[in-house]
Amino acid sequence: MQYATPEDAEAAFYHAFQHADLAAMMDVWADREFIECIHPLSGRVRGRSAIEASWQRIFSSGQQLRIICSDVHRTQDSLLAIHVLHEHLEIRGANERRAAIVATNIYQLVDGSWRMVLHHASPSASSSGTAAENNAGRQLH
Amino acid sequence: MQYATPEDAEAAFYHAFQHADLAAMMDVWADREFIECIHPLSGRVRGRSAIEASWQRIFSSGQQLRIICSDVHRTQDSLLAIHVLHEHLEIRGANERRAAIVATNIYQLVDGSWRMVLHHASPSASSSGTAAENNAGRQLH
Question: Lower CB count within 10 Å: N or C terminus of chain A?
């Protein structure tokens, strides 16, 4: 696919995420060695094959997800676009849970199409974490 | 100060952070409304005055910090630079602690100087969080 704008690439990213569509997910990512993905409270994952394996693990859980994005804050120049936003995840099923994530998504214009080069996601203060976790987190920084 | 390269701006950022120097810290940040800062497990902080207040709260704790950065992964075009790295924080004193943070730092060339426009920091998998926290985090995404 070609993504004419960073917004198109972002829509494809969240559609693939919500539908556990690995091929569509990897289509959004740039074919570059330097791409990097940070899932919440996980280590850094770098390069296409490692990033693909990380999404495969997530998708293999079979969780039914609904994702709503809000508070999208965008800036860009001619080749790079930065989006910071909240992801509101609803995990459906017997153990229904909600999670609030803050994500930094960076897109690069590569061969005429915008592609993701970085996804950094972490629990936000309004996440379901305990007060103790949040307090510990604040003390870290 | 003028920062000739994103690396210069980054060095000034971590020097200010380690020395709790609020004026030096705010000098690194771009004078733009768009700027955004995400401290570990905290909410998003946007705009200069809110970002300054957040660092003032952190610095007012009087913690003696040592920060070592590693695994710095850089990409940039003519106007934007993206650095992803590990911050290893040592909090000195009676309750000495260590924390591993993953940070995405974005710099923009503004009026001939590189300035920070985004800092997104979150606990990494090798952080001091409990296994349960890390497991919960992984399940979120």
Answer: N
User: 3-class secondary structure for chain A?
Assistant: CCCCCHHHHHHHHHHHHHCCCHHHHHHHECCCCCCEEECCCCCEEECHHHHHHHHHHHHCCCCEEEEEEEEEEEEECCCEEEEEEEEEEEEECCCCEEEEEEEEEEEEEECCEEEEEEEEEEECCCCCCCHHHHHHHHHCC
Residues of A in contact with B128 (CB under 8 A): 136
Measuring CA to CA, which residue among B4, B10, B2 is closest to residue B83? B10
Q: Residue B33 gets which letter from DSSP?
A: T
Query: Do B28 and B16 contact (CB within 8 A), yes or no?
Result: yes
The ipTM, to two decimals, is: 0.84
Question: Could you read off the pLDDT of B90-134 as tens digits, one per residue?
Answer: 988 767 788 899 999 999 999 999 999 999 999 987 544 333 333
B-contacting residues in A 112-141 (Cβ below 8 Å): 117-118, 120-129, 133-134, 136-141
pLDDT in tens, B59-80: 998 888 899 999 999 998 888 9
Between residues 36 and 95 of chain A, which touch chain B (CB distance below 8 Å)? 36, 38-44, 46, 58, 71, 73, 75, 77-80, 82, 84, 86, 89, 91
